[in-house]
Amino acid sequence: MKIRSAVTALALVVAPGLAVVGTATDAFAVTKISNATAQSMFRQVGITWSSSGNCSDRNNSTCTSFDQLNLSTAQGAQTLKKASGCALNITGGTETGHASGTYSHWNGYKLDYGKNTCITNYIHNTFSYIGLRGDGAPQYKSGSGNIYADEGSHWDVLYYNCGGC
User: Fold this and answer.
1) Phi/psi at 11 (5° precision)
2) What is the DSSP string of 114-164?
3) Torsions phi, psi of 91, nearest 5?
4) How far apart are CA 72 and CA 114, in angstroms?
5) Helix or strand (DSSP H, E) at 89
6) How confident is the model at residue 26 (pLDDT cuts 50, 70, 90)?
7) What is the pLDDT of residue 92?
8) Residue 28 banded pLDDT, cuts 50, 70, 90
9) Which residues fall within 8 angstroms of residue 156, CB to CB, at 6 or more apart?
10) Angstrom distance (rounded) from CA 88 to CA 74
11) Most exposed of 7, 30, 102, 163 (fewest Cβ within 10 Å)?
């Protein structure tokens, strides 16, 4: 156990705020980014976003906000866009109104994407089907451990890491 603690401490010195050592179920300190930073990162690779309220207020459930998004989540979105070559439109970010929990939208670990044939085919053909989530949503797991849940109208993606960025 002492070796793991030392390695974890070293990893946090080498990459402050980023989880470098551990498994997909270990919670670590993460780097949070602003709405503006996330939007800039998404624009760089052609990811779009939309909200029913046409806003970005984190405290309004009709908005799509990226305030307090994990850097690795934004990087994971970039990785998905580059790897798939598909159009990606984010319909849910860190705004209130999603389910709570450690690995939640509010805590910066999740993004929702509008469904389209390209991204659905990419997920089905590239990731491993791992069964149904408690609410019945079919789930797929990437090689890096991120979880893609088909919620019917959109993909709910849990980013434990940046997906190989």
Assistant:
1) -60, -35
2) E--HHHHHHHHHHSEEEEE-TTS-EEEE-TTS-EEEE-SSEEEEE-SS-S-
3) -115, -5
4) 20
5) strand 89-92
6) low
7) 97
8) low
9) 92, 110, 112, 137, 148, 149
10) 13
11) 102
Tens digit of each residue's pLDDT (9 = 90 or more) over 142-162:
999 999 999 999 999 999 999
Average pLDDT, the chain: 87
Residues in a beta bridge with 89: 48
**β-pairing, 48-49 with 89-92?**
parallel
Tell how many helices (H) and how many strands (E) occur in the chain: 4, 9
Tell the residue number behind the tokens 């300190």, with chain if given. 29
User: How far is the C-alpha of 56 from the C-alpha of 67, rounded, in Å?
Assistant: 8
Question: Which pLDDT does position 103 carry in this prediction?
Answer: 97
Q: Tell whether pTM > 0.85.
A: no
Question: What is the enclosing helix (H) or strand (E) of 71?
Answer: helix 71-84
Q: Tokens 């659905």 appear where?
A: 120
